[in-house]
C-alpha cells in the first residue's frame, strides 16, 4: 500500500510539474509572438493594441505571422502610395473592374426626377474590394463607400460629399477600417481610408484615388 501511495504522489508531482512547464512554455511562446508582432508593427508604422485571449478558444480571425506582415505591408503601401482606380461604364478590365449605370424608378409617387446609380468596385489590396456608389437625383449626389474582403475587417463611412457640374460628378469620402486579429495573442488595429474622384457621365469614365493614414 505504501508503494502504491508513493507511486500516486509521484505521478501527481510529475503531472503538476509538467503542467507548470507547459504553462511556462506557453507564456514564453506568447511573449515571443507578441514581440515579433510589435516589431512588425514598428517596422511598417502600424498602431496596434494588444489584448489577452484564451489559447483554447479558436476564432475566425486567426492569422499567421506571414499574413500579419502582409497586412501591415499593404497598409504601409496604401499610406505611402495612394491607389488610383480607373472607372468605366459597363466595361470590364482585367476581369475584376466594372462600372455600371442603371435608371431607377422614383421612390416617391409622381416625382418629377429620376435617380441614376453609378456603382463601381475594384481590388484595393490582397483579397480586399473597394466599392463606391454614387446616387444622383436632381443634381443631388449621395456617396456610399465600402471595403469588403477579409473577415477581420469592419468598415464604416464617417463622411461623404458629392456634387454635379455639367456632366461631371465629383465626390470624396472618409471612413475607418477596424480589424481584430488573433495569433497566440490578440490585437486591434484601425486606420482611416480617404477616397476622392470624378466621373464623366458623357464619356462614361472617371477615376477614384484611395489612400490610408
Automatic annotation (TrEMBL):
Record protein name field: DUF4251 domain-containing protein
Source species: Bacteroides thetaiotaomicron
Amino acid at each position: 500500500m505504501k508503494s502504491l501511495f508513493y507511486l500516486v504522489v509521484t505521478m501527481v508531482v510529475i503531472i503538476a510539474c509538467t503542467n507548470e512547464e507547459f504553462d511556462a512554455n506557453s507564456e514564453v511562446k506568447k511573449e515571443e509572438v507578441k514581440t515579433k508582432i510589435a516589431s512588425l508593427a514598428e517596422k511598417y508604422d502600424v498602431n496596434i493594441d494588444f489584448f489577452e485571449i484564451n489559447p483554447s478558444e479558436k476564432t475566425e480571425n486567426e492569422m499567421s505571422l506571414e499574413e500579419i506582415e502582409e497586412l501591415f505591408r499593404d497598409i504601409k503601401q496604401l499610406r505611402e502610395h495612394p491607389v488610383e482606380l480607373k472607372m468605366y461604364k459597363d466595361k470590364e478590365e482585367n476581369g475584376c473592374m466594372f462600372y455600371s449605370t442603371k435608371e431607377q424608378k422614383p421612390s416617391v409617387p409622381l416625382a418629377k426626377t429620376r435617380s441614376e446609380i453609378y456603382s463601381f468596385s475594384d481590388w484595393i489590396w490582397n483579397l480586399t474590394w473597394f466599392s463606391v456608389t454614387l446616387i444622383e437625383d436632381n443634381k443631388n449626389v449621395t456617396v456610399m463607400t465600402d471595403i469588403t474582403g477579409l473577415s477581420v475587417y469592419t468598415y464604416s463611412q464617417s463622411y461623404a460629399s458629392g456634387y454635379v457640374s455639367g456632366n461631371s460628378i465629383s465626390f470624396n469620402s472618409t471612413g475607418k477600417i477596424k480589424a481584430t486579429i488573433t495569433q497566440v495573442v490578440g490585437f486591434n488595429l484601425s486606420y482611416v481610408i480617404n477616397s476622392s474622384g470624378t466621373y464623366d457621365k458623357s464619356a462614361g469614365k472617371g477615376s477614384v484615388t484611395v489612400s490610408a493614414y
